[in-house]
Amino acid sequence: MTDPLTVKNLTVAYQKSPVLKDISFRVPEGKLIGIIGPNGAGKSTLIKAILELIPSITGEVEIFGDSYKNTRKRVGYVPQRESVDWDFPTDALDVVMMGRYGHLGWFKRPDKKDKAYALKCLQQVGMSQYANRQISQLSGGQQQRVFLARALAQDAELYFMDEPFVGVDAATEKAIITLLMKLKEQGKTVLVVHHDLNTVKEYFDWIMLLNVNLIGIGPTEELFTKEFLQKTYGGSLAMLDANSSPIIVSPR
Amino acid sequence: MNHVWIILIGALVGSSCSMLGCFLVLRKMSMIGDAISHSVLPGIVIAFLISGSRDSLVMMFGAAAIGLVTVFLIQMFQNSGVQSDASIGVVFTALFAVGVVLISLYTRQVDLDLDCVLYGEIAYAPWDTLHVGGHSIGPKAVWGVGASFLLNVLVISLFFKQFKISTFDPALAAALGIPVVFFHYLLMGLVSISTVASFESVGAILVVGMIIVPAATAYLLTDKLSTMIVISVLLSIISSVLGYYIAFLLDASIGGTMVVVAGVLFLIALFFSPKGVRHHVKFSHGA
Amino acid sequence: MNWISVFADPNTQWILFGSMLLGLSSGVIGCFAYLRKQSLMGDALSHAALPGVCLAYMVTGTKSIFFFLLGAILAGILATVSISYITRNTRIKQDSALGIILTVFFGVGIVLLTQIQHSHSGNQSGLDKFLFGHAASMIQQDVYTIAGISVVLVALCILFFKEFKLLSFDQGFAKGIGLPTILLDQFMMLLMVTAVVIGIQAVGVVLMAALLITPAVAARYWTEKLHVMVLVAGIFGAISGFVGTIASSMVNNLPTGPLIVLAATVLFIISVLFAPNRGIVAKAKLRGSVKSDFKTVAHQGVKEKSL
Question: Which residues in chain A are closer than 8 Å to C298, comparing Cβ atoms?
Answer without folding.
Answer: 9, 11, 22, 57-59
